[in-house]
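TA notes. Do not distribute before section.
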Amino acid sequence: MEITSRISQVQNHRLSFLLFLALASCARQGAPAGGPKDTRPPEVDSLRSSPNRSTRFEKRKIELLFDEWVVLSDVATQIVVSPPLAKKPEVVLNGRKVVLTFEKNEVLRPNTTYTINFGNSVKDLHEGNPAKDLRYVFSTGDFIDSLGFKGQITDAFSGEPVENVAVLLHENLSDTAIRKERPYYFTRTDKTGQYSFENLRSGTFQIVAVEDADQNLKWSGENEKIAFLDQSVAVSDSLKGPIALRLFKDKPAFRLQNQQTGRYGFVRLVFNTSADSAQINFQWPSGTKVLQERAPDSLTVWYDLPSDTSWNILIAHPEWMKLDSASGLNMPYTDTVRIKKLSRSDFMEKHRLGFGDEAVAPVAPTSGKGRLQGPASAAKPVVRQPAKTIIQLHTQPAELPFNYPVIAVDTSKWQLMLDTVPISNFTVSMDSLTPGKVWLTTEWKQGKAYSLSLLPGG
């Protein structure tokens, strides 16, 4: 009896063990070896997940259990909660379960329908098939809003659809809302530029689409492309779609962005965009000597006044208009840049001609082995070696940029040396477009070092 009992117990244990292996094999998730590729997307087990489309929602956590192992991908951009939350919820993966948790201090709006679009963020483990049309909807009120519309965003220049554009709906219809406030609803475009709003309440909104590179759900200015309608959108049962928008880069309003006016003889004005349409006039004394350098978005003025005095630069632009209180009309206006009185003698005492932005101060007399002898005013070179090192191609003239305009040169006072040997066969020419640039040409010997000294009056 005892032996028979033990054999029976061993057989029962073996049977239990084999049964456990069989059950474990049946429960294992994953694609079978061989056979057709798995293209079926993961699906939510609705009976074991947080109930979708619930009302009077007060929970802090949403759990979605899937019928197979899944992974999360690109959560930050793919998961969209609308209306937007104050802080992004935490989204984590726990086995086959995706858990979304609201921040502790998040306050949900009363009587509002929220939509959580998961996009392509949830995919199966083995083949990467994204969960299809994965949306979770809930309401903090007594019912789920059911209105909506669709559309497409394309680039105004190329006509191509634009992906991942933020499409915003604002309750506030003022022009400043898109810069200062987060929208009431928002969504993002897919690869085909398509967007869709669902579960909206009835009301009047302004619709705006922005690139939203900084992901703040606001238009951050001229650096972000924008699209909008000239009229508001009335969301109702009778709203006819789709609503197509064309994304463009807004041209910034012309303005003076920076000015340098604190040094005698030099003024530089920098604009935020092209100044081709601007009218720039000068109010300075008769007899003022002037050189101007114009670039598309800047103006550099070199000047020498007959006497120390203040003067003005007047700037006007066709876009610059302001309301005239007397006539009630928009009238053009002029901006004035005032250049304060500066001392020419102080400037001449402290500044010397030099390469680039270098201002070469007066040089003390040298003695002994120094190349120069005598008083600084008589023997000081205007540009001293080594003031600047230039890497020069032997087939091209050398570019010499000075810190002040050069209006004339005397090459008899230019000393070009190859090692210790003077070079006399060279030419000097001034740049017609840039007053501070001079070109030096000679038969450069490849791999050799040259030195250049300019004596006073050169």
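Switch to the second chain here.
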Amino acid sequence: MNLPPAQQRLVDGFRNRLQDADALTADSLLKQTEQSEAYQNPGHPDHLARTRMYPVQI
């Protein structure tokens, strides 16, 4: 898709902002999970043992 230069710069700017926002969100979620020690505590709802995928009948 070929856009005029001004529109392409605008699209590129939005793309960069969205990527930055995604990275910040993922990073903050990881930090929250690590701080809650979910990986070390099997009783925690976010513990790895509880995140396994199970077959589901549709």
